[in-house]
């Protein structure tokens, strides 16, 4: 292991906030909500999809390299672990910040980067940027799978639901090693935005309370709720029953009822 002294960081790592969660989980809405806050700057005018930092850098592979939405978490290479070498950490942190800083307002107190694969990269990001914050969004497995289907037309719905658990189970294994992490469910944020933004405000340490600026809307899940309800007949009805039977217990561990997308059970991040 190298003993070289790290250089002074371009940006204090504790200023960085990373948002992660599977595609179609509400990461974009939450990222825009946060970036609208006067003390937070998100990446903007980047010219890349959804202004995601993963597309602006070359230090790690973006999710598309591992199959993209509904697939990337199945590839172990996407689950980046901590960087232990001091020189390598400095090289990566400087490279990432240089890639992102032209698109931030550096006068802001906090600097936000949102990319779905941050869900399985928490240990990597917090080793490279010690003291940084990770905010993760969960959304109902069936809703995520149904809304991802448009990008993965030839992928079976059951496989897309399974991917949800592959990704989130990987995140949960990482939690005990994460220094600063906050998890919220998209459905809770939609139903009670003010109540769910209070703890997030406290977690981030901003002085002005976070508010819903219209990015989080209760109607976003309607089409997928209808599609799930309408799954019937000899083929799709069978698939729905198989999904319910296979994933009911696993979903309950995350506070979800796999059959009823509107039902939410009590859930909180386990003590670490």
Largest sheet: 5 strands, parallel
Shape: globular
Class per helix and strand makeup: alpha/beta
What's the total helix number?
A: 9
For the record, the CATH class is Alpha Beta
> Main sheet: which strands, in order across?
2-3-1-4-5
Estimated share of beta-strand residues: 5-15%
Mean pLDDT metric: 92
Q: Report how far the terminal alpha carbons are from each other.
A: 29 Å
CATH topology value: Rossmann fold
Which regions contain 5 or more consecutive residues with pLDDT less than 50?
Answer: none
CATH evolutionary superfamily:
P-loop containing nucleotide triphosphate hydrolases
Give structural attributes.
alpha/beta, Rossmann fold, five-stranded parallel beta sheet, 9 helices, 272 residues
Description:
By secondary structure, this protein is α/β, with parallel strands linked by helices. It has one domain (13-218): Rossmann fold. It is built from nine helices and five strands. Strands 2-3-1-4-5 form a five-stranded parallel β-sheet, with helices on both faces. Helix 2 links the parallel strand 2 and strand 3. Helix 4 crosses helix 8 (222-229). The protein is globular, with a radius of gyration of 19 Å. The model has no long low-confidence stretch (mean pLDDT 92).
Short characterization:
With 272 residues, this protein is α/β, with parallel strands linked by helices.
Sequence-ordered SSE layout with sheet pairings:
Elements: E1 16-20, H1 27-35, E2 40-42, H2 86-100, E3 110-114, H3 122-128, E4 133-138, H4 141-148, H5 157-174, E5 181-185, H6 186-191, H7 193-204, H8 222-229, H9 233-252
Parallel strand pairs: 1-3, 1-4, 2-3, 4-5
Helix pairs in contact: 4-5, 4-8, 5-9
């Amino acid at each position: 292991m190298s003993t070289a002294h790290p250089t002074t960081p371009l940006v204090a790592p504790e200023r960085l906030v990373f948002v992660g969660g599977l595609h179609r989980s509400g990461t974009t809405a939450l990222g825009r909500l946060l970036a609208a806050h006067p003390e937070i700057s998100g990446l903007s005018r980047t010219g890349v999809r959804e202004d995601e930092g993963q597309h602006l850098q070359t230090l790690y592979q973006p999710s598309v390299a591992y199959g993209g939405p509904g697939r990337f978490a199945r590839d172990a290479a996407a689950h980046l672990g901590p960087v232990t070498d001091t020189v390598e950490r400095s090289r990566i942190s400087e490279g990432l910040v240089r890639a992102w800083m032209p698109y931030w307002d550096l006068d802001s107190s906090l600097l936000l980067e949102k990319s779905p694969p941050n869900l399985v990269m928490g240990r990597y990001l917090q080793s490279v940027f010690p003291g940084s914050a990770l905010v993760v969004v969960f959304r109902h497995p069936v809703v995520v799978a149904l809304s991802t289907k448009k990008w993965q037309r030839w992928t079976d719905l059951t496989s897309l639901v399974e991917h949800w658990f592959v990704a989130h189970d990987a995140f949960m294994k990482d939690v005990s090693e994460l220094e600063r992490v906050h998890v919220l469910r998209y459905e809770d944020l939609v139903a009670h935005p003010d109540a769910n933004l209070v703890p997030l405000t406290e977690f981030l340490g901003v002085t002005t309370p976070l508010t819903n600026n219209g990015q989080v809307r209760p109607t976003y899940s309607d089409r997928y709720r209808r599609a799930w309800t309408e799954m019937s007949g000899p083929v799709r009805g069978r698939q729905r029953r198989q999904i319910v039977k296979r994933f009911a217990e696993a979903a309950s561990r995350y506070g979800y009822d796999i059959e009823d997308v509107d039902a939410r059970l009590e859930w909180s991040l386990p003590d670490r």
